[in-house]
């Protein structure tokens, strides 16, 4: 319960550039820095690390189990 690993499906930005795990990691890091608003920053407080070990894999480490994390990651504020 202290980690979430997921694979991204093949997708592209409007300009045609493929979306990578690094893009998702950057989005989560921006939100953790408060650039998606203070509420999202506070909700991500339990995220201790986020990484992209492969181009299509995102790994999130948590300080405590947070079953609501997947729902939070689906919000527009964390969209890539």
Tell me about this structure:
The protein is of the alpha+beta class and 80 residues long. The chain has 3 helices and 3 strands, in the order βααββα. The chain has helices at residues 21-32, 38-43, 69-73, and strands spanning 3-7, 47-54, 57-62. Strands 1-3-2 form a 3-stranded antiparallel sheet, with helices on one face. β2 (47-54) and β3 (57-62) form a beta hairpin. The longest helix has 12 residues, at 21-32. 14% of the residues are buried. The model has no long low-confidence stretch (mean pLDDT 92).
Summarize the entry for a quick read.
By secondary structure, the protein is an alpha+beta fold.
Write the layout of secondary structure elements.
Blueprint: E1 3-7, H1 21-32, H2 38-43, E2 47-54, E3 57-62, H3 69-73
Antiparallel strand pairs: 1-3, 2-3
């Amino acid at each position: 319960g202290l980690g979430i690993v997921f694979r991204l499906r093949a997708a592209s930005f409007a300009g045609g550039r493929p979306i990578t795990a690094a893009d998702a990691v950057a989005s989560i890091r921006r939100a953790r820095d408060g650039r998606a608003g203070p509420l999202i920053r506070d909700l991500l407080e339990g995220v201790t690390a986020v990484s992209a070990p492969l181009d299509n894999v995102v790994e999130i480490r948590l300080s405590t189990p947070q079953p609501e994390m997947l729902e939070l990651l689906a919000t527009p504020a964390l969209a890539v």
